[in-house]
Each structure stands twice: as C-alpha cells, then as structure tokens.
Amino acid sequence: MDKLFEYSNRLIKETDTKFLRYVYDEINWKSRMIGLIGPRGVGKTTLVLQYIKQNLNPAETLYVTAEDFYFVDNRFVDLADTFVKHGGKYLFIDEIHKYKDWSKELKLIYDYHKDLNVVFTGSSVLDIKKGASDLSRRAVIYNMQGLSFREYLQLFHGISARTYSLEEILQHKVELPVQHPLPLFSDYLKTGYYPFAIEEDFGLRLGQIINQTLENDIPMYADMNVATGRKLKQLLAIISKSAPFKPNMSKIAEMLSASRNNIADYCLYIEEAGMIAQLRDNTGGVRGLGKVDKIYLDNTNLIYNLAEDTSNIGNIRETFFINQMRVKYDVFASPVADFLIDNKIFEVGGKNKGQKQIKEVENGYIVKDDIESGYLNIVPLWQLGMTY
Predict the structure, then answer these.
(1) Does the pLDDT value for residue 136 go beyond 80?
(2) Domains and CATH numbers, the chain
(3) Scanning 44, 124, 137, 377, which has the fewest C-beta atoms within 10 Å of its C-beta?
(4) What is each CA distance from 47 to 76, 114, 184, 195, 280, in whole angstroms?
(5) pLDDT tier at 135, thresholds 50, 70, 90
(6) Which of 33, 46, 36 lies closest to 91, judged by CA?
(7) 154 near 160, Cβ under 8 Å?
(8) C-alpha to C-alpha distance for 163 and 292, rounded to whole angstroms
(9) What's the CA gap between 83 and 94, in Å, rounded?
(10) Which residues contact 207 (CB under 8 A, 6 or more apart)?
C-alpha cells in the first residue's frame, strides 16, 4: 500500500490545474459515490487529479488505477478497509472497468464505510452503465465528452470566453476576443477535440485509442471473440467512409458476413464507446428511443484520422453540430431539414447555403460554415461550439 500512496502523491503533485474541464463545476463532489464516465482520452484522469490537488488533504486521499498490478492479488474491498483504518476519507479509482465484479465491490464499500467518499472513472461506457444498475441509489454518474470549441480556445490558445446558451447564440450574443475565429475553428475540427492533442504524435495516439476501444474495451464487455472484434473495426471503417449515412442493416451485415440482428448491437456498442453518434428521430420522445436516421463518426477529429482521403465537408459540419449540441440538448433528426432541437429546425451548410429547406418552417435556422458572424436566422457554425 505504501507504493500506491507514493504513486498517488506523485501524480497529484505533477498535475497542472490551470485549465479545468466543463464538467468540473457540474459535479456534486460532496456525493458519497461518484462515477465519471466517457470515452478514452477526454481527460477524466486529469480532472479527478485536479480536484484532489485543489481541494483535498493528500494524507486522507488515495488515487489508484484498476490496471495496477496490486489488484492482481488484492480486492477493492480490502484496500478500502485498510485505507479507512489508516484514516483515509477519499478514494479515487481510475479505469474501474478493468476490474472484474467492480460494481459489487463498490456496493459493499458504500455500505460498509459510511465516512468514505469514492470517485471512480471508466472508459468502457457500456460496462459502467451495466454496473451502475447494481449501484442504483448509491452512485451519481456523470458523462464527460471531449473539448468544446470554447474549451479548445482556452486550452490551446489561452483565449477565454464564457459559455452561451443556444438561445443566446440564436440571438447573436456571442462575443469572442478574437477578430478571425475561422482559422482556429479549422484547426479544432482536425485536432482540437481531445486534450492530449496539445502533446506530440496526436494521430498515432488517437489511432491507439481507436484500436484499444474496438479490440479490448468492447469485446471484453460483450464477451466477443477475436473474429467478432475484427468485425467492429470493419464496421467503423464502413461508417467512416460513408458517414453520414442511413443505415441499411441488411447491406452492412452482408459486407461483414455477419447476422443482420447483430449489426444494431455492434453500432450501439461503438456508439457507447464514443466512436460513432447515431442520430435518431423523435418518435420515442426521448433521446435514444427513436429509430436511427443517420450514423456519424462521433467527432470531427475521428473523421480526419479515419477518413482523411474521403472526408466530406458536409459530413464534417453535421458531425460538429451533433457532437457539440448533444451535451446540453436533445438532438433529433428533422423530417424537413438536418436537425431538430426544442422545436427549432436547423439546416447546416456552407456560406452559400440558401433558405430552401426551411422556407415553410417556423423557428427555422440556417447554420453556416465559413462565416464569422450571424444575422437574422443565420448562425455561424463555430458559435455552436460555445455551449459548454
């Protein structure tokens, strides 16, 4: 356990706290058990270390990762027991989905140690959601996604701006201390979604995350064999070359030599792991219940990494829209244009995009790329990256 403390204290000491992610202030850190989930690479580990460094006494706090060799021979329950007996109050467990039966043990820890606060993080979103059912009424779960354009400006360029609601954006209230945001926006679309892009070898590291997600995280959760795991990579390749596309499950099944019934499951796994986004209609009334209308890659950085030669600018614009807006709003497919949010219709395009699709529509907006400022019902695409 001494080595665990040594490792924990070193990581906390080395953590930079100058830039904090959007979810930092949304978390109720007083909750006895908190789960922070999201795709690999979005900064969950950094965020919990920042919180420890800024708010907690290192003598009462322990950060561990479930990947540590310590857990080959030791259980979470025993660690928590020993930790509490030595005066521990705050236990942080990273990459928790790497540990078998983690949810059952967390449930026991919660019930046995009333004065211990536990925060856990996980990248395998499906596994966390499955385990969270064991922790209902105990753990509060927060989702975290990659950088907004606003956060990118702050982290990469030191440009600070407040968040804006969609209503404020539609009323053209966005103010940015930059005369020409479009070159920065173009960079963001290519390499600005993942915080680690500020370091070197971004493309290589993003490729590794994609592989780890498809070859390890999903197969481990869904109990897949190697051959099925390979089909996930083929499916993502098909989506990356075709997105956004209306899914034809029979055709995809034929291309993958897989059962048609399995394709929808594969898509759900890849979506929950943060690799794709499925745009649904609002027939179900709640996001996630409607019929899948289109499938996109999850964010624009993935497009440039996976489909650089075949990337389509229209696809990039729509992907940015759904990716940024879904954090605060339910985004549905529109029967007359591209997207529907709160009874507002949005058509996304370039600077020459006309009003044709929405001319008969009340509450219709044209979202244009390649323009710096908006007017009337025309909104610059980049401004939709200012909501979180």
Answers:
(1) no
(2) 2-143 (3.40.50.300), 149-386 (no CATH)
(3) 137
(4) 22, 25, 25, 11, 31
(5) confident
(6) 33
(7) yes
(8) 30
(9) 16
(10) 305
